[in-house]
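Quick one before lunch.
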Amino acid sequence: MTKNNPLIERLAPWIAVVALVIIWEVTVRVFDVPSFIFPSAMETARALVTYAGPIAMHSWQTFWTTLIGFGLGVAVGLVLGFIIGSSRFLYNACYPLLVGFNAIPKVAFVPILVVWFGIGSVPAILTAFLICFFPIVVNVATGLATLEPEMEDVLRVLGARRMDVLLKVGLPRSLPYFFASLKVAITLAFVGTVVSETVASNQGIGYLMMSAGSQMRMGLVFAGLLVISAMAMVMYELFAQLEKRMTGWAHRGQNR
Amino acid sequence: MAAAFVTFDDVSLAYDTSGNAIEDINLSIHEGEFVAFVGPSGCGKSTFMKLCTGLHAPTTGAVRVDGATVAGPLKISGMAFQNANLLPWRTTLDNVLLPLEIVKPYRHQFRKRREEFVGWARKLLKTVGLEGYEDQYPWQLSGGMQQRASICRALIHQPRLLMLDEPFGALDAFTREELWCVLRDLWEAQRFTVVLVTHDLREAAFLADTVYIMSRRPGRVIERREIELSRPRALETTYQKPFIDLVQELRAQIGEVRST
Ligand SMILES: Nc1ncnc2c1ncn2[C@@H]1O[C@H](COP(=O)(O)OP(=O)(O)OP(=O)(O)O)[C@@H](O)[C@H]1O
Ligand SMILES: [Mg+2]
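Model of the adenosine-5'-triphosphate complex:
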């Protein structure tokens, strides 16, 4: 393995971004793509500046609905994961159901949610929730369900109850899985919110892109895309850092 | 001879329909005795431990410990295995303290008496040579050190019965001999009853008062051998003729088991 310069390694993601933007700009110019089909990077940037106000407002809407949906997902995911992971019977019973549920495209729920709750933030929050709790449940349940039998013997002989074993060993052991799943879940939550906003809202980035698209203002549509992915990346990074903080023991010495 | 502490009366155990894992076990171990079990792989040594500690009930026969029939997990026992199984998110000290957070009556006193318990743990860690490593995490310790900590964890609640299932099996020869001496000294000082499962005949002969040899599955005790070597035993004796002869005899007996 060649040793990379740490500075270059740190800058690598930014270099990749810059390279992508340049390729984007050059491609659009060279092939002379009309801007109502595929706007150039410059045009997108211009839209980003021109419409900074509305974009900020709609982003904020998307951001907080996503966070609420995600928060619900974490709460329900943890509880459900704990319940399912703590019993072999429930694990076997519920797993197929969860997999089946997860296979349903969540956009299919949006019309139902609209009938129940009307157009607006609620369907967006619930779609974000529905799409993001699954990885959390699976990760927590799996972490709990995989216990070394010998460790269990050591504790059981001391008169440990099932709950003791779960709290002292199972839960801490599943934390790395849990934190890893948060990263995935937050990005999924953004997907859920935006999908719902595009069909059932008059606020949020999803709505903004939809209406801008119908007016052929592709610069604004792409600006919306950029903002969503920027928000998702920031949140992902935040949870990646949190994961590192909370579960350092899982990533250091691997000699078991 | 002292009264029996652990007795097995015609004990058999079948996990499933595939037949007995362990069969017709009759033996008694007195308090403070150090016994070792040797036998081919899969003959039921770990099963014996589960029966002894009440983690598994016998299919037929009865196990009695300290005068009472074993009906559930016996909290007067401590266990350690080949894999140290320390929890990686706890420091060595907190790993050793874990049993006190669980076993009665200490679990209810844990907060109040924590200082005192920490004192016990530190003292125990010191006797096995882990002084100064209390605040290290398991993954910062060598395999031998992890195993020492694992034995401390098994002993922290002052069990009367210590169960060791191939505790030194994964260590190199030098570390293993070091740990024999650690275990010997702990036992000499506290005289708890020890059941040691091992594949190493030298280990069994050096540490134990009595060595039981088991047959292949279904496991039966086919030989009981008292080790007459005087105590305390020094590691050097393991390189002297009487000891070597003894190990050779045990070896021959195991050979007979394997060929039948
Ligand atoms: N939970 C279980 N369910 C079914 N069969 C089991 C179970 N545990 C052990 N056995 C069987 O019982 C027999 C004895 O197993 P045991 O683990 O006691 O052997 P052992 O002497 O400890 O072997 P080793 O030296 O390899 O550790 C084996 O044939 C094994 O397959
Ligand atoms: Mg075994």
